[in-house]
Every structure is written in structure tokens, then in C-alpha cells.
Amino acid sequence: MRTALQSTYTPSVAPKAAPPAASFAAATPVRPVPQLVETPAPSTGAPRKSLVERWLASRWSGWLSPVLFLVLWSTATYLEWMPEQILVSPLQVLETGWEMTLSGELWENLGVSLYRLFAGFGIGSIAGLVFGVLLGLSSSLRAYVEPTFNVLRQLPTVALIPLFILVFGIGETFKVFIVIKATFFVVGLAVHDAVRAMSSRYAEVAQIYCFTRWQVIRSIVLPSIIPATLTGVRIALSRAWMVLVGAELLAAESGLGQMMELGRQMFRLDIVMLGVVLTGVIGFSLDRGFRWLERHLMRWKRS
Amino acid sequence: MAIQTLLHKAKGLLLPLVLLAAWEWASRQGASAAYVFVSLATMFQTLLHLASSGELWLHLHTSLARTLTGLAMGASIGIAVGTLMAQSRVAERLIGPLYHSIRQVPLLGLIPLLGLWVGNGNSAKLLVIALAAFYPTVLNTSEGIRQVETRFREVGHMLTLGRTQTFLKILLPAALPSIVTGISHALAFSWLACMGGELLFSAGPGLGSMLLNGEVTGQMDQVLLAVVLIALLAQGMNALFNRLARLLVRGRST
After folding, report:
1. Does a structural domain hold residue A29?
2. Using CA atoms, how far apart are residues A9 and A32, in angstroms rounded to an integer?
3. Which of A62, A159, A264 lies nearest to residue B115, judging by beta carbons?
4. CATH number for position A176
């Protein structure tokens, strides 16, 4: 190392002073030296990209901080800056994840959580869609139901978890129902707003064609509310996921939330962290999946 | 005309009245039904009891103070970070990926981890609330500042304002509506986070703890009262904030 350094500096001072280093000098690039000396001079003239500029322009620049974060995390655990109950290494989290995958425990919890999510979400969004369309189309139904709908919509789902536990018990029913609640009102409102925002010209077209009510719904209302509905459904899905995790933390015999809660009670930080990462990954993929679906279904709009 | 609107309102009241009547009827169908369907008279008595014993005020005060403290912490840090991300591309590239990846974890899912790190006392709840307030303010602040029109920036350039002055005199006022929207989202989220935190870190007073106690002891009246109060307070705070925000934004834009 020292010889390499010397070799880069020696040529300008004494080219023949260190003959053994000459072989190294040939191998190591000597070019950086003149560049280093010259950099201050042209900075006034031609705009030379600084290191920061080049980093910003590079494609991997977004990865720097997560990688640094992981390195810092690993170093902190490797040097044992904190006790194991406070911080476990990322490797340990991966290892725990692998072990739980092999034992089937992880799949079971994951499957149960996703089953609850999609059961509740499916029922809730279909009910919300039907309700929203009916509410949007019929002004007499609106007069009777809308105030109640608006009041019930305001009830925060998280706060309703204990209420649902008292009503439905701590079994599966309560978790599915809490997901239905989280989904139904969001989707229902989005659909209702979309139907109300529909251009009145569509209704006139339907009148000209003498459409029946069902025809109006199928060939005019449903296609025109797709964009707003998909957005509403996507928001509902991520809310439902959060509420479900909360409900599982509070009362469950299985599921990702319960796995984390057990981990917390046993001071198994690796399990808790695994759960946190997994809930994040699932939330992220659900959101991304739905965005993709939105784009895919809306591709006619772009062209 | 007046009769028409009155009739319209009456139609809207019909369903709630029917539901209440059905509820009241169900509460008189034996002991097992009364466990879930608490009669309205019982609920009113519980409310009076809780209010006169001072328990209700303690819960209310704790939750509100906690939410506002957490909101103030989270929103101020959020505005600072959002500003930094909008002003410096280096900061944006460093903080952005971390921010967006941590944001993917549902807030309630972070609770067990925070519980292990900071216990289940007041600081853990404050942390959850502050986080809930942090996310939307960062996003709205950085978007708001980034979307300030270039002609405003050019004015600052022409007046040879410094970085701080440009920020205070031009960027901040122009981004204010967006920042205020961010804070109003933050208020709603932090109230929910406060309830979630109090439910899951069951310690000390607070409306969420009142909910949980009601659930554990099987007192439906207490649970229902807490739910109604939580929803009413959420609405009240939202309305109050919107009124304040309108004053603030209008005062700035003229």
C-alpha cells in the first residue's frame, strides 16, 4: 500500500529514487495525480460534474441510504452496541424467517391473515359497490339512507375493534367483519361519489336508447365508475390490512399480527421484526398490485 | 319549499329512529341480548356516572393532550424533513427511499416493535402518534414546496434574497395550503393512532384504554360510549382545524 502511494507521488519529484517501486508504478495507474492537481483550475470554466452530481445522476443513488442503513444495523449488532433484546442482526431475522418457513409456521400465519383479508375485503367491496351504485342512482334511497351512512362512516374502524369483539366474540367472524367494515364504507363512498359525478349526457344517451334500468347500470354506470372505484378499492385494501393487523394483535389465535404479539411477549425481537418486514412487504405488494391493475384496466384511456 | 326540505330531513331521520327502536326492543329480549344491546337508558346512566365521577374527563383529557403533543412533534419534524427533501436533492435521494419503505409498514404493525423498544408507557404512545403525523406532513410539505411556481422563485432571485429569506418569504407562503392539508390529514391519522396505541399498549388512562377496559369487563355501554365519543371528537377536531386553517390560508393569500 505504501509503495503504491509513494509510486504515485515520486515520479514528479525523483523518478529514479526508488527502483523497486518502479514495477508497482507501472502496474498502478499514475494518471490520477495530474488530474488531482488540475481540478481546481478548470472549475471556473467548463462545468465539471462534481462527485455529488455524478452520484445523483447514477441509477443506484436511491439504493445508497438503504444499504448504508443495513450496514449500520449489521455493524451495530456485530459490535454489540445494544443488547440482543433491543437489536438483532438482519441476518438473524432472515434466519428466523427461513426456520419458520421450513417449519410451516410462517405459511400458516400468513395464509390465515391473507384469507381473512380477502374474505372480508371481497364481501366488503362487492357490498360497497352495490350499495354505492344504488345510492348514487336513486335519490329517494339517498334521502332515507344517506345521513345514516354518513354517520356510520365516521366511526373509526380501529375503535370499533373492541365493540366487534363484544358482539361477535374473538373468533374468525369478528376479524372478517372488521375487514368488511373497513372496506365497505370506503368503497361505498367512492362508488357513490363516482356515480354522482357522472356526466348527465350519459343519462340522456340512455334515455334516447330507451335503456332499462339494468342496461343503464351495466353499460353506462359500471364502465364509467371503474377508475374511481379502483382507487377507492385500493385505499380500502391498505386500510383493511392495517386494521386486520391491529385486530390480530389484540385478539387472535393465529395470523401475522398474533405472531408478532407472541414474539413481543416472549421478547423475541427477531420474530417481531420479521413480522414488521412481512406486513410492510405485503402492504406494499397489495398496493403495487392494485396500481398495476388500475393501469392495466385503464390502458384504453392512454392510447 | 320549507315543507319539502323538512320532509327530506324527516326521511333521513327515519332509518336512525327505526334502528334505535330495534336496538331498544332487542335490549328487552332477555339477559343474553341485553349483554350486547344495552338499553339507551342504561347508556345514559353510564354516561352520567362516568362524567360525575370525573373518570370520563380524565380519559378525554389524556387522549386529547397526548394526540396534540404527538401531532405537534410529528408534524414539526415532518415539515422540517419535507422542506429538506424539497430543497436538497441529496437529502431527497438519501431520505426518500428510507421514508417510502418504512411507510409501507402499517402503523399498527409497528406497535409490537415499538413496545419492545420503548415499553408501553406514554412515550411509546407518543411515538406512534408522532409517526402517524409525520408521514402525511412530509409528503405534503415536500410536494407543496416543489410545486411552487418558478415565477415566484424568479422573483426571489431578482430581489437577490438569500436562501433563508427565499424560503420564509416565498416558498413557505406559497406552499402553505398544501402544508395545512398535510396537517389536517396528520390530525385525523394521529387521533386514530392514539386510539390504536392506547388499545394495544394497554396502560394508563385514555379513551382507547376505556374501550379496552369495557371490552375486557364486558361492559357494552362503556364501549359504545367510547366509540361515539371518539367519532364525535374526531369530527369536532376536524371542523375546528378546518376553520382555523381557512383563516390562516386566507390571511396569507390576500
Report:
1. no
2. 10
3. A264
4. 1.10.3720.10
Task: Chain B: give the shortest CA distance to residue A206, in Å.
Answer: 28
CB–CB of A245 and B93 under 8 A?
Answer: no
Tell me what pLDDT residue B125 has: 93
Are A86 and B226 a contacting pair at CB < 8 A?
Answer: no
Q: Under an 8 A CB cutoff, do A245 and B200 touch? A: no
Q: How far is CA B158 from CA A133, B42, B154, in A?
A: 54, 70, 6
Q: Are B218 and B38 in contact (CB under 8 A)?
A: no
For residue A259, give its domain range.
Answer: 98-302
Q: Looking at the domain assignment, is residue A292 inside a domain?
A: yes
Q: Is the pLDDT of residue A12 over 90?
A: no
Q: Which residues of B touch A269 (CB under 8 A)?
A: 113, 116
SS (H, E, C) chain B: CHHHHHHHHHHHHHHHHHHHHHHHHHHCCCHHHHHHCCCHHHHHHHHHHHHHCCHHHHHHHHHHHHHHHHHHHHHHHHHHHHHHHHHCHHHHHHHHHHHHHHHCCCHHHHHHHHHHHHCCCHHHHHHHHHHHHHHHHHHHHHHHHHCCCHHHHHHHHHCCCCHHHHHHHHHHHHHHHHHHHHHHHHHHHHHHHHHHHHHHCCCCCCHHHHHHHHHHCCCHHHHHHHHHHHHHHHHHHHHHHHHHHHHHHHHHHC
Mean pLDDT of A255-262: 91
In sequence order, what E strands does B172-237 have?
Answer: none
Amino acid at B78: G
Is A61's CB within 8 Å of B93's CB? yes
Q: Does A260 touch chain B (CB under 8 A)?
A: yes
Query: With contact defined as beta carbons under 8 Å apart, do A148 and A202 qualify?
Result: no
Q: Which residues on A lie below 8 Å from B98 (Cβ)? A: 65-66, 69
Q: What is the mean predicted confidence (pLDDT) over A259-269?
A: 89
Q: Which residue in A143, A167, A250 is closest to B12 by CB distance?
A: A143
Q: What percent of chain B has pLDDT over 90?
A: 37
Q: Give the total number of structural domains in chain A.
A: 1
pTM here is 0.82
Among all residues of chain A, which has the CA nearest to that of B19? A148
- Assign domain B42-253 one CATH number from 1.10.3720.10, 3.30.160.70, 1.10.10.10, 3.30.450.90: 1.10.3720.10
Amino acid in the structure at residue B208: G
End-to-end CA distance of chain A: 60
CB contact under 8 A, A158 and B12: no
| Residue A261 in contact with partner chain B when CB distance is under 8 A | yes
Q: A139 — contact with chain B (CB < 8 Å)?
A: no
**What percent of chain B is predicted at pLDDT more than 70?**
98
**CA dist., res. B202 & res. B213, Å (int):** 9
Contact state of B12 with A272 under an 8 Å Cβ cutoff: no
Are A276 and B113 an interchain contact pair (Cβ–Cβ within 8 Å)? yes
Q: What's CA A76's distance to the chain center, in Å? A: 27
- The answer to whether the CB atoms of B97 and A65 lie below 8 A apart is yes
Model ipTM over 0.90: no
